[in-house]
Amino acid sequence: MKITDTSDLWWKTSVVYCLDVETYLDHDGDGVGDFAGLAQRIDYLADLGVTCLWLMPFYPTADRDDGYDVTDFYGVDPRLGTHGDVVEVIRTARDRGIRVIVDLVVNHTADTHPWFVAARRSRNSRYRDYYVWRDEPPANNVNTVFPGEETTLWELDEKSGQYYLHTFYRHQPDLNIGNPAVRDEIAKTIGFWLQLGISGFRVDAVPFLIEVPEGEDLADPHEYLRDLRRFLRRRSREAVLLGEVNLPYKEQLDYFGDNQGEELTLQFDFIGMQALYLSLARSDPRPLAKALRARPAIAPEAQWANFVRNHDELTLDKLTDAEREEVFAAFAPDERQRVYGRGITRRLPTMLGGDPRRIRMVYSLLFSLPGVPVLFYGEEIGMGENPDILGRTSVRTPMQWSDSRNGGFSPAAPSRLTSRPPEGGYAPEHINASQQLNDDESLLHFIRKLAARYRISPEIGWGTAELLEHDAPSVLVHSVRADVGRMVALHNFADEPARVRLALEDEPEGAELTDLFGPDRLALGPAGRVELDLPAYGWRWLRVARPGDGRLG
Ligand code: NOJ
Question: Any residues with CB less than 8 A from the CB of 495 and at least 6 apart, and which?
């Protein structure tokens, strides 16, 4: 497909930014972030280069899983604002070229959701079958998602004498998607938010959502995902489903659908992310290279979403035990920096000891890897986690806007905040957006520049990726090419300079490599040979400039 035929495919080259309204900016001073606050920061996001804003759950909630326990799929948590405020944000964002996607959390509800309250009141309730009930817990009653916090998947409801399924916490009963009434509710929910102007959904826990409980007789569960996608398409040509599917690549492929693009539009690359951390721990790009080689090619109607941090624990569950231990030893030496035996509760800069060279190398990779980059709020300024908060929520601290009270997040008394910024070196006095806005050398400016270069390099989102052979073991060299041209990126994982000898054999004589971040132009020698020097943790993006192709940069 030609990159110029992209009308509804805006997401192929988007820059995604995830935030929780609750911790972004508190406008009314009650200690809780709100939509009115977020509306004031849309220009900041536009300036950063964000084109897709992913809002974590903002619905009415029992608030025992940070909003992932919804009590009304159609509502807005009154602490955060009203539907009017949501629409203002969507409209303002759209005006600045940013589309908004929202979390769709329909694998389960809160146990205080009126459906579940009614369902457990009586076996005859019309809502009983909205959930999954058994007289006895099935034999596979293990493998909880939150080991240490939950021990079973089935909880006895004393009153009605049956067990209900909860993939996550016991206060999050799973919805029964085998029930057509539930599927209708989900469709209506999707339709509702689309009507308010959003451009799609980050779909929570997709494999669990479509999983058919043992004993249920349902046709292909992927048919349900195809159905959802068809419905979405009918309601909006531009809307996407960005799915959370933490499975091996081969299985992930099924979630794009047989004719890819029939089910999820985008999927996070959990495998690549985990391999990246192994590579960082070893100062050796091979694990990441291996993952990238294994990453299946996907159709133009699908996309990978790359990330180095999200709002959950940094899961390492797909590494081997020994590999996970290596990453733990390198980046989470203290047991309190780990959770569930599989993940890390820290942010990137603290894991990398605050080394700006390494941090920048990782973000350069994030923006140059084939796919779209996804940032978790605060990454652009190098926020750290709050080590005093144990578990997953250590990284969900208030956005650090300035060095004033509560990091400029809220004028309220600190005791009213739902989460506190860290103290010490990563405190708002040292790490904040205002200070970095005024410093051309800051991480914020750097990320802005990466986003800008990414946006004039559509081959990254559209192209075919290749790993190039060369003779510098600490360096990953990858290239992406599409009809618009080709880019080659180099990343040095070691604390030592490296010399890289490359041969771009298929490039025409006279082609040059132009540096997208500097003035260099390097002519390719015979057989496309070129020699490049990288400093320790250095990186480069080089555009292949062919005579007369008129590319920018
Ligand atoms: C995945 C979300 O990312 C996580 O934060 C949440 O706890 C579970 N789904 C349950 O909704």
Answer: 283, 536, 537
Name the stretches of the chain with pLDDT < 50: none
The tokens describing 288, both together, are 């990441």
Structural domains in the chain, CATH included, are: 1-104+358-462 (3.20.20.80), 114-165 (3.90.400.10), 464-545 (2.60.40.1180)
158: which 2 tokens? 């004393």
At 509 the pLDDT is 77
* CA 205 to ligand 1 centroid distance, Å: 7
DSSP for residue 130? G
Within 6 A (CB) of ligand 1 lie 65, 68, 105, 168, 204-205, 312
- Find the 226 Cα to ligand 1 centroid distance in Å: 22
Confirm if 290 and 274 have CB atoms less than 8 A apart. no
Q: What is the pLDDT of residue 291?
A: 98
**∠ CA(376), CA(93), CA(71), 5° rounding?**
65
Gap between the Cα atoms of 457 and 367, Å rounded? 10
Helices (runs of H) and strands (runs of E) counted in the chain: 16, 22
DSSP element (H, E) containing 501: strand 498-503
